[in-house]
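Sharing a chain and its predicted structure for anyone who wants a worked example. Both blocks are below, sequence first, tokens second.
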Amino acid sequence: MPNTRPNRNIPSEQENPLFHDTWKLLKNYRDAVWNLELAVQQVRSTFEIEYGSSIEEFLDSIYLAGADIGGSKLEDYAKSIERSNKMLTLLNSAVDILRSKHKHGEQYYWILYYSYLSPQQLQNTDEIIENLRPHIANISTRTYYRKRPEAVQALSSILWGYTSKDCLEMLDKFFPEGK
């Protein structure tokens, strides 16, 4: 059966689980940002109501007093928010590296931005392409659908690096076991 995908050099989600993880991460980005912002705001509000001070002021006083809040519900919630924030920071850093270092970085950035990262999700592909026009000359629907998986693949290689199958195969060629 012939391969009918537009760009045969880019693995499909089924062919490469890391690529699938990047798609999944991008597709959930807006929700993750929204949920993180809500969680932080909720913790801040609840904390100020219960303790009458900001979290920062409270933590400063706890640390100065030498108290330990380890194992508390507050610590668990703070760690959960911190993990989510680190994940989003990692993704944003990878996108920045892609934009500044990749040979098609600026184009890929705008494709990823309007497809997944902008605060408001655009309604359809036509709206995405309309927003891409100032950044990418002569962008068409076909070009968009060809370049979008390329952008995701480039981001995936930054995010997952040497854990990708292609990188491991290349390393095996240069450093075969037992030799």
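Comments welcome. Helices lie at 17-27, 29-51, 55-65, 73-101, 105-117, 125-132, 141-160, 165-174.
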